[in-house]
From TrEMBL:
Annotated Gene3D superfamilies: Aldolase class I, Putative flavin oxidoreducatase, domain 2
Assigned keywords, A-Z: Flavoprotein, FMN, NADP, Nucleotide-binding, Oxidoreductase, RNA-binding, tRNA processing, tRNA-binding
Protein name, UniProt field: tRNA-dihydrouridine synthase
KW Ribonucleoprotein (keyword) present: no
Active-site residues from the entry: 103
Family: Belongs to the dus family.
InterPro entries given in the database record: Aldolase_TIM, DUS-like_FMN-bd, DUS_fam, tRNA-dHydroUridine_Synthase_C, tRNA_hU_synthase_CS
One GO MF term: tRNA dihydrouridine synthase activity
Substrates-to-products reaction catalysed: a 5,6-dihydrouridine in tRNA + NADP(+) = a uridine in tRNA + NADPH + H(+); a 5,6-dihydrouridine in tRNA + NAD(+) = a uridine in tRNA + NADH + H(+)
């Protein structure tokens, strides 16, 4: 089976998986602004994916052809469940599968999944091997952090590099640090050095506090990594993956038009099956940097329907 990772021109850029953010609607908006080289879905529970609540979770795995290459991210602790989830993902037509081994969310960690797997390498191995078997040839990747409570870069990354992974994304903080401190990019560089010392061909992707395309290029070169993953930086500019766009020169009209496109697509795709309030976390991305932006944001936060948004934005 084709491994799209091997065809990417370096350094490549990816949009990070973010819950209630990186759904098919938002990804399609990013395509219109300037798409990254790789998209990831929101992260999905493997247990949930094979449960009676599967249909609701499958919303998170909805995608359009314009979003390829696209990788489905899952999390869990049961090898047999990860195996079954991987088979479902393969049947859905994804280009790759990613295992979340870095999420610091308290409920995820308490279940033993996400970042907790850093402290449980035996289970991490079982999860990786089971997912790989279920993937049936789809390239497998892992997203993780540099440690659980303390920095364990060399020990943990060298462990993960033993597996037949296509790519490894390293977020430059420990699980305990959440997002409270600046990302330790020197540790991401150390992870790349470990990879090079071992002589393996796994692509190394750095993640943490990248806020512009050019900052990503600089970090990729400085820390000798293959790719850059941008997460929260996307909220500063939907055009972050487009080096041809100077965000400071984007007009308020263009920002508001994009907001309308996002709201209309959200309404069209989800048709009430998703809470409209989810949209509100995006308003700050569009309504900023111009006179009256703060007042408009306050009013937008009171909206409950697409018609409310259209009326407010249309009066600007």
């Amino acid at each position: 089976m084709a491994n799209f990772w091997q065809k990417l021109k370096k350094p490549f850029f990816a949009l990070a998986p973010m819950d209630d953010v990186t759904d098919t609607v938002f990804r399609q908006i990013i395509v219109s602004c300037g798409k990254p080289d790789v998209f990831f879905t929101e992260f999905v529970s493997a247990d949930g994916l094979i449960s009676s609540g599967q249909q609701k979770l499958l919303q998170k795995f909805q995608f359009s052809e314009a979003e390829r290459p696209i990788v489905a991210q899952i999390w869990g602790t049961k090898p047999e469940t990860m195996y079954q989830a991987a088979m479902i993902i393969k049947d859905l037509g994804f280009d790759g599968i990613d295992i979340n081994m870095g999420c610091p969310d308290r409920s995820v960690v308490k279940s033993g999944a996400g970042g907790a797997l850093i402290d449980n390498p035996t289970l991490a191995q079982e999860v990786i091997l089971a997912t790989q078997e279920g993937a049936g040839g789809l390239p497998l990747s892992v997203k993780t952090r540099i440690g659980f409570k303390t920095v364990q870069t060399e020990q943990w990354i060298s462990f993960l590099l033993k597996f037949d992974l296509a790519a490894l994304t390293v977020h430059g903080r420990t699980v305990a640090e959440l997002s409270k401190v600046p990302a330790h990019w020197e540790e991401i560089g150390r992870a790349a050095a470990v990879r090079d010392q071992l002589g393996v061909k796994i692509l190394l992707i750095g993640n943490g506090d990248v806020t512009t395309f050019h900052d990503g290029l600089k970090k990729a070169k400085q820390f000798k990594i293959d790719g850059i993953m941008i997460g929260r930086g996307i909220f500063k500019s939907p055009w972050i993956f487009n080096p041809q766009v100077d965000t400071s020169q984007v007009t308020p009209q263009k920002r508001l038009q994009l907001l309308l496109e996002h709201a209309r697509l959200f309404d069209e795709v989800w048709q009430g099956s998703k809470n409209f309030a989810i949209l509100k976390k995006f308003f700050n991305s569009y309504v900023r940097g111009f006179k009256g932006a703060s007042d408009l944001r306050i009013k937008l936060m009171e909206t409950k329907t697409l018609a409310d948004v259209e009326q407010l934005v249309g009066n600007q």
